[in-house]
Amino acid sequence: MATVLIVDDEFGIAELLESVLTDEGHTVFTAANGRHGLQRMAEAAPHLIVLDFMMPVMDGPTMLRALQAEEATRDIPVVMMSSMPEAAVRARCDGYAVFLRKPFRLKEARAAVAAALDGAGRGG
């Protein structure tokens, strides 16, 4: 199974995803914004990052660019989440593996995580 970092300022969403992914056998840790997410990366190298698009302090696109700028993190797949249409998200950033539109069903979230992990040849 994979280590997953969930970065979302909406506590309820982060908690729900953490519960679902932990039940599936993944090791999950969370962060409330992009800056906190980058700090949490030092604690455990994730196989996957589930990243919210709009957050205070550091948003998803800024964190994604920071990940892509570093050799050690640029190949970690990212599931980008947003309530905005994907076209609007893609206009501000690219390089994420899978897009997950909020609000989502748990089945959709599980499928997005599985697709990102499968696409990266990681996970279990």
From TrEMBL:
A Pfam family: Response_reg
Modified residues (4-aspartylphosphate): 52
The keyword Flavoprotein is annotated on this UniProt entry: no
SMART domains hit by this protein: REC (SM00448)
Gene3D superfamilies, alphabetized: 3.40.50.2300
Protease is among the record's keywords: no
SUPFAM superfamilies: CheY-like
Alphabetical list of InterPro entries matching this protein: Bact_response_regulator (IPR050595), CheY-like_superfamily (IPR011006), Sig_transdc_resp-reg_receiver (IPR001789)
Keywords: Phosphoprotein, Transcription, Transcription regulation
All copies of domain Response regulatory, residue ranges: 3-117
Full protein name: Sporulation initiation phosphotransferase F
Organism of provenance: Methylobacterium isbiliense
